[in-house]
Amino acid sequence: MENGNRTMDLVIDWKKHDYPIKDKLNAVAKEKVKEALVFGKMVAVNHWNYKKNKMTRDQMAFYANNTLVYVAKSGCPRQRDNSRDSWVYEIQGVHFLKNTSIPESITYPKPIVFQNKAHVDTRTFGRVVSKIEVIHAINNGLFVCDHSANKKTGYVFYDRYYFCNDVCVVARESKNEITVNTVYRITPIGDNNFLKQLSKFEWGLQNHLGGGNVNFGIKNETAERKWHESDEYWDHVMVESIKSGNSDAKSVPGPWQRRIRFLNIYSLYHSSKENKRYLEHTIPSAAWMKLVEFGGIPYFWKGKGPTFKDFAPLANHEYSFIIDIESAEDSLTKRQVRYLQLLGLDLEKYPHERIHKDGNLRLKYSMHNFSVNPQPWAHNNWGQEEIKYGA
């Protein structure tokens, strides 16, 4: 999808379009419109027209980052590939939603039920969407009509796509209640196939001011913590410390038994050349094998070693998602920051670790914040918030 990524530079002839909000669009707003058209969730608009007593299906809607754009359907034929480069966008309306944080408690006017609660539970668990986010999207989000009518009875079903932040709720509103059909995140990290689609996003994360490669990785944080507590790991640390000339057991952190262990290794290390060679060879090997035993092998999208195709997550283990960007400076361009936000890896939303070393900028996110596949490590607070029914 390289061409699709390049359309962040999409050019729109704003003078060609005529709609009420056009004169109010500044440069930032126009950029949001372009991002919605290029990266946004695309849905068909099915609206019941009361005056004509029929369904209208002449619009498409695009949503991303609290920006909803309506365009004429005639210019947006559905295409088999993911690229939207050659589409003709006849913009017919733009709506913006202010960024809102998820409240600690929420009140909703109508009862909210679930058409298939097991399905919704699976979707919210796998994509880390809390119940309060669902209600917040229904209460405060932008919505797109997806009405349908029963030909025999003439009854109109008021289905809607509710959009807020990066959440989409598909629900049907009736006089007495709101029925939720499904829930998902529209950003790519909420997609089950995210790990298989990384080639689409590489170009957008590169530093185009100075080039640079991009690589992705997955690290088992639980395994590494267990490894750092093992004797094999500390034997490795001690041998490396002794090799550097250290002879002071007091410099070894931890309980006194570890210092005694250091003195024993130190004595054995200096007792003969054979013992020195033996320790320098076997201790590191034992340490790395212990990491493998705990499941701590890092996975990388490209390069040598295990790849994402080999990734087999362990239940209840915490994993980190890593982005390595070749960069001479410890900084991201505005383009890269916006692209991370569009992917769902918002630097302001999710806590992350940032390290710049040897010409590489590493960003590391905990997968506790999101899940690229429905797995037990994805924690959400479904049903744990204060939710009140009534106006």
In summary, what is this structure?
This protein is an alpha+beta fold and 391 residues long. The chain contains ten helices and 18 strands.
Commentary on this structure:
The strands form 5 sheets. Strands 6-12-11-10-7 form a 5-stranded mixed beta sheet. A 5-stranded antiparallel beta sheet has the order 14-13-15-17-16. Strand 10 and strand 11 form a beta hairpin. It has 2 domains: 187 residues, no CATH class; 180 residues, no CATH class. Helices cover 28% and strands 26% of the residues. By secondary structure, it is α+β, with helices and mostly antiparallel strands. Helix 6 packs antiparallel against helix 9, helix 7 crosses helix 8 and helix 7 runs antiparallel to helix 9. It has 10 helices and 18 strands.
| Quaternary status | single chain
Q: How many β-strand runs?
A: 18
Spatial gap, N to C terminus: 46 Å
Element order, helices and strands? HHEEEEEEHHEEEEEEHEHHHHEEHEEE
Sum up the structure in keywords.
about 400 residues, alpha+beta, disordered N terminus
List the helices and strands and how they pair.
Layout (H helix, E strand, L loop, with lengths): L1 H5 L20 H13 L1 E9 L4 E11 L2 E6 L18 E6 L8 E4 L3 E3 L2 H10 L4 H10 L1 E4 L2 E2 L6 E2 L1 E6 L2 E7 L4 E8 L16 H4 L8 E7 H8 L2 H13 L12 H14 L3 H22 L4 E2 L18 E8 L7 H10 L8 E6 L2 E7 L19 E4 L2
Parallel strand pairs: 5-18, 6-12
Antiparallel strand pairs: 1-2, 2-3, 3-4, 7-10, 8-9, 10-11, 11-12, 13-14, 13-15, 15-17, 16-17
